[in-house]
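TA notes. Do not distribute before section.
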Amino acid sequence: MSTQTIASQASLPPRRGSLAGQLFNRLGMLPVLIVLYLVFYGLTLYFSADGTSNFMSADNTMNIMRQVAINLVLACGMTFVILTAGIDLSVGSMLAVSAVLGMLMSLPDHHPALAIPTFLIAGLVLGMLNGAMVSFLSINPFVVTLGTMTALRGAAYLFADGTTVLNQQIPSFEWIGNGDFLGLPWLVWIAAGVVLLSWFILKKTVLGLHIYAVGGNPQAARLTGIKVSFVLLFVYSISGFFSGLAGAMSSSRLYGANGNWGVGYELDAIAAVVLGGTSLMGGVGTIWGTVIGALIIGVMNNGLTILGLSSFWQYVAKGAVIVLAVILDKWRQKQAALN
């Protein structure tokens, strides 16, 4: 090949992905959220008996935000994990164990003042257990969290003695699930705080840079001096901590908890993260994308409920969304390579 040919090829402009791909890289799933919101408004309006729809009402919007709050807290923890190319299938089970232990501690004949610390510490310890097995024993994250998902679900039933732990005295932390502050539910404020904390860690700290580096190439990260084992321990620990917080949020709404708490929540969390643009291959994603993904799940669940579709169809829709999220992830990676 002549020098002139090489020079002419080097002078060619780089290939560009499609306009849709470029927009997706810039805006993420925000347009999808807007379109989905409008579509459900139209459907609820069309199928309503009196020709009106309360889908866009302030009350229903607040209801969506309440429903999204718990999933968003779990999804923030899942974002940390998936950014390192890992997975945490045990978040729902950790939520259940934390919720049951926290409610047991809140009973009058125990130590009600220690209820909230119990929620958080239980989740943190369980997350550290996952992280230790992944980071120090080098066990595949899928295998680890699949095992702990099953084991911890059984533990939740055992701690609750197969029943629902109720606190009819109304626990001191009931404001978390039922109180408001400045016109917004405390659930929303807590979720917003978790989002801001997660954003700060990922974007404003050295630890955040290390998380992205480990997800992008763990071997290269290790060669540059990054303590990969510590990073992995941290991301699974914070996922557990947020699961414990979610356990407190869910238990405070109904003044109780049982072994069924959080069943299927891991699917919603994973779907929210991947829909938000975080790559399952690790190293790519933002916490704001996760917020959009969680809102998409929340709008979809709320719209299907208003339309009167059974919960079975909601499971079908969630499964379809997860598959769509994976397809979008692969397409996004292809477009990013072209741009």
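Switch to the second chain here.
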Amino acid sequence: MLEVVILIVALIISLIIVIKSADVFVDNIVEIGLALGISEIILGVTASAVGTSLPEFGSAMIAILTGTPDMGVGVAIGANIWNIGGILGISAIFAGLITTQGEELRRDGVMAFLTALVLTVSLFLFGNISFVLGIILIIMYGVYIWILIRAQKNNKNKEIECCDISEETSQEGKSQDSKKSLNTKTIIFAVLGLVGLAIGCRAIVYCTVELSTMANISEGLAGILLAFGTTTPEFFTVLSSAKKGLNSLAIGTVFGSNIFNILIGLGIPALFVNIPVEPITTYFDAPVMVLITLLLLLLIKRGMKLSRVEGVILVLAYVIYMFTRLFFIM
């Protein structure tokens, strides 16, 4: 009993370390990028996705590379299902209404669905995540980033066209004056954030493996349960955004995180090892991920919004999934 308590406490501390380390790493890597002259558009797109998904990515990566691939895949897929059914559903219930735009639904929503579908079909056909599939997933993410950058550049160009030349010149001067300089402190904190992530994720995987062994549950299910902790950044970001009326940020965080979790969270580890996937993940968890993503798109498409009713539907869908997973097909 004492060992279980110690492991649970260690798991909670590890999650806190990982979440804080992710914040430190992302904040400082953005500073470094700005100092090196990397476009704010690129930094904004990548940092927003990576920032909330680093705990899942780190946990999945460490789990896969240390011999517990089922847990790594479980974290990625479990996080995606929870992001939609749990986080977005709960946020819609508390906020009352989350609206979205057609462009976001066509671009980010369709990409999230396509990502889930490609992974699921590949698992049905091959039963694992191979090096070739890893390359395909990473290329898909690169294409998605390119689409986002192009869309943001187009919006920026339209804004510039609406401004006077004098205002444009003034803005350029301000931009040059505010150019950030690279300092040693920023680099050190970025490295410390990365080290904290690595250590924290390794501790998370170790504690989860030990607890799942004691509870006699599979590594895949353990990963799905672990996703409750690793998605904490998404939960607070989406809930806070929805309550403040920042609808695009709320829905965009979920779509962006889900895309990143699969394309990068599973794509990069596949470059190093062939990732076997347990049958229950292939025939149940992955299809549920596809279906709940499709359900979200259909609910939004009805009126380009999520009301409390749609939120309840999403939460109920997640409850049914977890009840089935825990009590019928563990």
